[in-house]
């Protein structure tokens, strides 16, 4: 007899709850194979629920193969290899899966995080725009986006680049993707897998990992005070260079115009390409934005890349690249069969956010907030014991800087002491350099009210 109560419903419908109860009894062996189930009317009277609820539960069990029906006889429990299934369900997850997923402890302060504080995202505006898109763009929402993204978003990006970066860009030369990794995968096919790539050292290690995962030859090129070494680049076999000239990651160096011209000359002579990654160019704290390499290029050798993950939220996986005309023509010819990985809904919302001026207002507000946060952090360091035992490099651009510490212990020992203080920090060595006692300070997601205490804990670990 099936005796169930319906007192513990947790958002489920009656039929879903009944279905789950019967399924659990079958899987546990409480209901044996070929055992007859009560008729729908009999079970309805017994449980004081409608026949339709019983019908829906039985039909779901029938469709999944937990029960079968016999003409004019009713419903019966199917043979489902209960014992083997029960063992499978009770088996804990495979250990290697658990080990492959990194933990993300909730530190008091995590100086390595580039996450977005929920209080900083314009939820009210974003919600208003999404409602507008759902109400007014229904037909467009049901259409497939072009492979390189909706024209509405590409037009908005092009207008934004003219306004903020002085870049005269055609929307037809823009490719929208779900993050830099997606765009890089397209580039590898567009440029050819037989090329050798040059990457900055230290530099953004995810690019190195992506190249290695695709079995693409790559060479680390050292960084000097002006950015990537063009003399070393010229001696290498590389024909593609990935660089972060406006705000080098992780050292924060801004590449001067002379080095930029040297890079462009290298690309012209070798007929190579420069991938200009401007991942956080919107957050230059002092002076005017540095002109992009793309704007200085007159021979179609620069590929410009940027992302909204820094300026809006790390979970908004929308990036874009601007291709030279020759490469864009090649893209249309060879790769336009790809589907755009960013949903039409998200593209339309972002396009509205930009064209209606909300993006500019958001950037201005965030720049003010980050400048205030940076100043608080600098003042806290200057007014702490760290002041006499540290040097700060390149703090006037982007959302991070490098701090060099006078340590009497190893970097690992220092980091272990910080972990005991609930502070997370990454050494510069994590980005491909052997520079000792230098650490990356990313302040974008640090709550202002925790800055002073975080600096105090850093100083305490330095003094112990």
Question: Can you give a write-up of this model?
Answer:
It is globular and about 90 Å long. About 4% of the residues have low confidence. The protein has 18 helices and 16 strands. With 464 residues, the chain is α/β, with parallel strands linked by helices. The N and C termini lie far apart (70 Å). The strands form 4 sheets. It has an 8-stranded mixed sheet with strand order 4-11-10-9-8-5-6-7. A 4-stranded antiparallel sheet has the order 12-13-16-15, with no helix packed on it. Strands 1-2 form a two-stranded antiparallel ribbon. Helix content is 43%, strand content 14%.
What portion of residues is helical? 40-55%
Query: Major beta sheet, specifics?
Result: 8 strands, mixed
Proportion of residues in extended strands: 5-15%
Radius of gyration: 29 Å
Question: So what's the oligomer here?
Answer: single chain
Overall mean confidence score, pLDDT: 87
* Strand elements, count: 16
| Outline | globular
Helix and strand composition category? alpha/beta
Count helical runs. Answer: 18
Can you tell me the residue ranges where pLDDT is under 50 for at least 5 consecutive residues? 82-92, 94-101
Distance between the termini: 70 Å
Strand order of the largest sheet: 4-11-10-9-8-5-6-7
Write a brief caption for the model.
The chain has helices at 14-28, 40-47, 51-63, 82-90, 95-100, 123-136, 138-141, 151-165, 180-191, 205-213, 230-235, 257-270, 293-296, 325-334, 344-355, 358-382, 411-420, 451-463; strands at residues 67-70, 74-77, 109-110, 174-177, 197-201, 218-224, 227-228, 240-243, 273-277, 302-307, 319-322, 390-393, 400-405, 423-424, 426-427, 438-442.
């Amino acid at each position: 007899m099936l005796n169930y109560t319906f007192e513990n419903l947790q958002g489920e419908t009656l039929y879903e709850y009944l279905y789950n109860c019967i399924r659990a009894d079958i899987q546990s062996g409480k209901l044996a194979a070929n055992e007859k189930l009560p008729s729908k009317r009999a079970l309805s009277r017994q449980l004081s629920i409608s026949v339709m609820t019983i019908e829906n539960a039985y039909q779901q069990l029938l469709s999944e193969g937990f029960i079968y029906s016999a003409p004019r006889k009713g419903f019966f429990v199917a043979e489902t290899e209960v014992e083997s299934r029960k063992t499978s369900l009770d088996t804990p997850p495979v250990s290697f899966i658990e080990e492959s997923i990194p933990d993300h402890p909730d530190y008091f302060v995590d100086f390595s995080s580039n996450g977005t504080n929920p209080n900083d995202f314009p939820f009210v505006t974003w919600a208003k725009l999404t409602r507008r898109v759902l109400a007014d763009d229904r037909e467009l929402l049901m259409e497939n986006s072009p492979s390189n993204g909706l024209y509405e978003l590409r037009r908005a990006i092009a207008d934004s680049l003219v306004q903020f970066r002085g870049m005269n860009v055609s929307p037809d030369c823009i490719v929208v993707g779900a993050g830099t990794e997606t765009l890089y995968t397209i580039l590898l096919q567009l440029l050819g897998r037989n090329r050798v790539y040059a990457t900055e050292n230290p530099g953004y290690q995810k690019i190195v990992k992506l190249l290695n995962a695709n079995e693409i030859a790559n060479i680390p090129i050292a960084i000097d005070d002006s950015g990537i070494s063009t003399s070393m680049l010229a001696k290498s076999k590389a024909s593609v260079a990935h660089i972060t000239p406006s705000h080098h990651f992780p050292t924060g160096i801004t590449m001067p115009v002379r080095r930029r011209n040297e890079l462009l000359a290298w690309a012209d002579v070798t007929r190579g390409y420069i991938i200009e990654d401007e991942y956080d160019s919107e957050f230059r704290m002092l002076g005017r934005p540095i002109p992009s390499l793309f704007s200085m290029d007159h021979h179609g050798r620069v590929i410009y890349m940027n992302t909204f993950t820094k300026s809006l939220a790390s979970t908004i996986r929308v990036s874009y690249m601007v291709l030279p005309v020759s490469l864009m023509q090649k893209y249309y010819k060879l790769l336009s069969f790809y589907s755009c990985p960013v949903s039409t809904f998200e593209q339309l919302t972002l396009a509205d956010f930009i064209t209606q001026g909300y993006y500019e207002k958001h950037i201005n507000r965030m720049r003010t907030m980050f400048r205030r946060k940076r100043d608080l952090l600098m003042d806290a360091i200057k007014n702490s014991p760290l002041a006499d035992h540290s040097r700060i490099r390149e703090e006037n651009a982007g959302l991070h800087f490098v701090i060099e510490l006078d340590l009497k212990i190893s970097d690992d020992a220092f980091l272990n002491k910080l972990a005991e203080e609930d502070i997370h920090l990454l050494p510069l060595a994590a980005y491909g350099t052997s520079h000792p006692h230098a650490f990356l300070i990313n302040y974008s997601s640090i709550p202002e009210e925790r800055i002073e205490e975080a600096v105090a804990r850093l100083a305490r670990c330095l003094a112990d």
